[in-house]
Design brief:
- This protein is mostly helical.
- It is built from six helices and two strands; from the N terminus they run αααββααα.
- The chain has a two-stranded antiparallel ribbon.
- A hairpin with a 5-residue loop joins β1 and β2.
- α1 packs across α3 and α1 crosses α6.
């Protein structure tokens, strides 16, 4: 499985909103500048995040974006599934029940199921808040 640029940038955008939350809306151009991502590309991503109810938007001079919930209420899995869709490592696991005609005789199915469960446990067990905290390690160097 490979996470697309859109998925990685969506996570960076959400992290930026969490890190710079001062109670107001954050202009997309500020996020673009800090993250080194084109504002046009971020616009495409923020539309998806907004439709999913992950961010709130306002227009005008003081316009911008902010998280709709606290960083602790978002998991990495939630964010990635908006841009990536299913995180299943093989197509046969994307639907339940499994629609593959070979499922009953597939000797690799349990392996793929285990991998999928491990992926979901990891991405769903990591919150935006935890990532922000990991990134806010104090620098004690002199």
């Amino acid at each position: 499985m490979k996470i697309s640029t859109k998925g990685r940038y969506a996570l960076r955008l959400m992290l930026d909103l969490a890190q710079h939350d001062a109670g107001g809306y954050i202009p997309l151009r500020d996020i673009s500048r800090r993250q080194g991502i084109s504002a046009k590309y971020l616009e495409q991503i923020v539309v998806q995040l907004s439709k999913a109810g992950f961010v709130k938007a306002t227009r005008g001079a003081q316009g911008g974006y902010q998280l709709a919930k606290t960083p602790a209420e978002y998991t990495v899995g939630d964010i990635l599934r908006i841009t990536e869709g299913s995180l299943a490592p093989v197509a046969c696991l994307e639907h339940e029940p499994i629609e593959c005609a070979r499922a009953s005789e597939c000797i690799t199915l349990e392996f793929w199921r285990g991998l999928y469960q491990a992926i979901n446990r990891y991405v769903d067990g990591t919150t935006l808040e935890e990532l922000v905290e990991r990134g806010n390690v104090p620098d004690y160097s002199i």
